[in-house]
Amino acid sequence: MTFEPADRVDAVPPSGIRRFFELAEEMDDIISLGVGEPDFSAPWAAREAAITSLERGQTSYTANRGKRELRERIARYESDVHDLSYDAEDEILVTAGASEALDLAFRALLDPGDSLAVVQPCYVSYVPGATFAGVDVIDVPTRVEDEFKLTREVLEESGAAEADALVYCYPNNPTGATMTGDELVEVAAFCRENDLVVFADEIYADLTYEHDHTSIATLPGMRERTIVFNGFSKAFAMTGFRLGYAMGPPEAVTAMNRVHQYTMLSAPTTAQHAAIEALDDCREEVTDMATQYDRRRKYVLSQFEEMGLDCFPAAGAFYAFPECPWDDAGEFAEALLQSKSVAVVPGTAFGEGGAGHLRISYATGLEDLKEAMTRIADFVQ
Amino acid sequence: MSSRREILDLLRENARYTTEDLAHLTDFSESEVESIIEEFEEAGVICGYQAVVDWGAVETEEERVRATVELNVALDRETNYGDIADRIARFPEVTSLRLVSGDYDFDLEVEGDSMREVSHFISDKIAPIPEITQTVTHYIMESYKEQGMTFDDHDDDDRLSVSP
């Protein structure tokens, strides 16, 4: 007997990031702009709540759906900040990160052989997640000339009308693209006309700089066909707590919870205590961190402009997505790492839609960011 | 849209930002940044630029001693808090002076080259001022945070070098 990966596992290639991760790990003193997580620590009040919960011995499982108190706080936060209205009783599911919530949605709401339209370039887990669920993927490649926004034209050209569901992330990882409420109207119309379920990954919603974030679930006729995903990793800088949530109609959340209760049982208890405090008391820190990212964003965009490298105006998350001056972005990223010790990620790591671009994360202190941009400018020139 | 206040926040964060840096970090042009800073300086909003020093990390044989001093004062018809503050603030040894609420009136910070020097300053220069009724001196043993900056906060970046 030997262990062979199952076919659906074998069908998923290693992450495109892995090679850069390995190269970067071998080097000392690199400045990494390849990190997709905040450089801030979680707000102190949230950390202290986690410590206190441990001191009190609150270390047992919680309800499968998550602590009732946390779901109520999430409902209030989403109502206050994103104009979304969900019932804490049966429309919110607390998960181990938004990634788990997406995995649950793929497995609980789609059947093997169903198809999922994936807006690209995209977070690295969507396509593998669909493959693990036995779901076919329809690529929906967004275009730089549209500033990587999702349009009706792109949806029609890609054949998304044939899909059962659509998954996207705005503000977007890796491009930093955002979509306004007006721009989402035609996407919503397309989804209604073609009876598509929408998986809206809004993990970066609070990191939207040029306009207010609008959830597609707030548009007419969309709440009943949308699952909204969010979590504490990005805006609250709580990546290591592994805490996210999904919001949607009761029947969808119940189905997702059925998978969740047999796999995860419940999200980490300590993290749930921290999250209650974060939602109660740490909104100011979220605003402060967003202000810092916005400053860095302006800085990075201005530097690319000075270098003469085309970089569309990223308006959300903490990524810039400039065009790569070389034909092969992978070769460029490797050479930059070897000669200047700066790590960036080639756009192809996020699907073919990212070809010809680099993902630059500005979740890095300004001093390091300045040094890194100077080195990139040297390298390019 | 950036506000003028943002320039102050950024300079508080790092007074060494150049006007070019500040222009890149905000929506202002370099010339706008220059004129905003000039206005703030002229209006006395920006009073100066200083480094935040962790004296404990300075490798030197010279001792640098700091103390906070609680002062109680008795006012009369001729003298108010401002008069006393004017007199105390003139001493170069005094690095900060605040009127506070609570058990004492003034909160004073004093710097010197030795404990002896600081002690003599308090006993020879401050205590004899007629309106001062009591002084309580606290020598600063160790400083962990100054002006919003934490010293030795072990915040090394241990994130993955590359991540999704």
Write the layout of secondary structure elements.
The complex is a heterodimer of chains A (381) and B (164).
Chain A: H1 7-10, H2 18-26, E1 31-32, H3 44-55, H4 68-82, E2 92-95, H5 97-109, E3 115-120, H6 126-132, E4 136-141, H7 152-158, E5 165-169, H8 181-193, E6 197-201, E7 226-231, E8 244-247, H9 250-263, H10 269-281, H11 283-307, E9 319-320, H12 329-340, E10 342-343, E11 345-346, E12 358-361, H13 366-380
Parallel strand pairs in A: 1-10, 3-4, 3-5, 5-6, 6-7
Antiparallel strand pairs in A: 2-8, 7-8, 9-12, 11-12
Chain B: H1 4-13, H2 19-25, H3 30-42, E1 65-73, H4 81-89, E2 94-99, E3 106-112, H5 115-126, E4 132-139, E5 145-146, E6 149-150
Antiparallel strand pairs in B: 1-3, 1-4, 2-3, 5-6
What does the oligomeric state look like here? heterodimer
Low-confidence stretches of chain A: none
Q: What's the mean pLDDT score of chain A?
A: 95
With strands numbered from the N-terminus, the spatial order across the biggest sheet of chain A is 2-8-7-6-5-3-4
What would you call the structural class of chain B? alpha+beta
Give, in order, the helices and strands of chain A: HHEHHEHEHEHEHEEEHHHEHEEEH
Distance between the termini of chain A: 56 Å
The low-confidence parts of chain B are none
Strand order of the largest sheet of chain B: 2-3-1-4
Mean pLDDT of chain B: 92
Number of DSSP strand runs of chain A: 12
The radius of gyration computed from the alpha-carbon positions of chain A, rounded to a whole number of angstroms, is 20 Å
